[in-house]
Design brief:
The protein is mainly alpha-helical and 436 residues long. The chain has a domain at 316-426. 69% of the residues lie in helices and 0% in strands. It is built from 19 helices and no strands. It has helices spanning 4-25, 32-48, 62-71, 80-107, 110-121, 124-132, 137-152, 158-167, 175-185, 194-209, 213-217, 219-224, 246-270, 276-293, 303-315, 320-338, 345-365, 374-394, 402-422. The relative contact order is 0.10.
Length: 436
Amino acid sequence: MLRTKPLAIALMLVCGLAGLALRYLLREYANSDAFQFLIPWYTFARDHGLGALAEPFTNYTPFYSYLLLIAAPFDWLGQPLSLVKTISAIFELGCAIVVAQIVWRTTKLPLRASLAFCAVWLAPTVIFNGAMWGQADSIWTFFTLVSVALFMRDRNGILPFAVAFSVKAQGAFLGPFVLGMILRRRMRFAWLAAVPGVYVVLALPVIVAGRSFVSVLGVYIDQANTFHRLFISAANIWIFAAGMPYAIGVAAGLVLASAGGLALSIFIAQSRRTEPEFILLVASVSLMLMPYLLPKMHERYFYAFELASIGLACINLRYLPFAVIAQVDGVLSYLAFDRGIVMSLLPAALCNTVLVCYLVLDLRHGERVSRFPRLAWLGFIASTAGLFSYLLFAGAGMNVSPAYVLASGLAALMTLRLLKESHRGSAHDPAPSHRA
């Protein structure tokens, strides 16, 4: 271990600097959301100062308004979009540190923890989300990961979960996990009151500044009513049922997600497994299952699962395919919005469906012996490389062709093959080594 510490530190420093350089190069990259929302929000906060708190100048919760006001005094350092992206970058760094700590506390292997930090800091979906788009998903994800980390240490993680929900409604994706942990540990249900309680406490500055209480409480209702489509841009189950009537689809989606979440909570409460890896696994399932089952989701809402799966892979290498596939599917989804390559969503949804099925099956089967299926990895890499090449070559829009069907079918098939092979083991094989 003494030999690996200098290597682990050197690796973190190199990747840390590489991540900073990459974010600097992308600081001026902008999409339509940046011009329509982010830059005007920041400009309003800068020009009005604390007086901005009296106005609903963003469609986010008050927490994000506070961050914009904190960034505004540094306006002389760069362009508005660069400062907005800096907010995201700070929380991305926080996410990388939390995941590295999770891996370190579980394995006590410095190289594994270092790899976890580097993988999160340089993850393609993280770069897309923050460095390119300036989105705020790293903020709620940071508090979500802190909540999971506390539960993994047998501590109460409800307060950071409440903060995550107070930042964005997507923090609720961890809800089935939190409910399961409450049932498992026989905690008082009164702890759930912390969720609305923290939201109100964090909203007090804007209420004191003059913003109406109804306006503050209605943020999530307004967000829910922004789009009236079952399928927006997420690679989830609703890409296959986008033609269903809106009202029926919303009701069915809520019932489906509620049933799935409740089933997961009950499973967590009844399971006898106690190791930290299991806690992270069920948290990952919660973060994947909710955006997969719910309608009206954006491609960015798998962000927390993508980072949690990296920690899971660094703790147990048999989960490496989960983390890699999550990144591939995430990039395919981001390309649909960023480049208009809408046909990338279907193979991403197919692969996410396989991923969800294997996550659920993994909860039932428990620990197995890890293995490295070389041919399955080779097939997965080749098929996904072919899919990306075809999509980028074909360009934006709807480009259905035999080549597309072949590429997307092979990618989904090799995803299934990789997950199947990586989880196949013999009870007579030796236990997997935890040496880095």
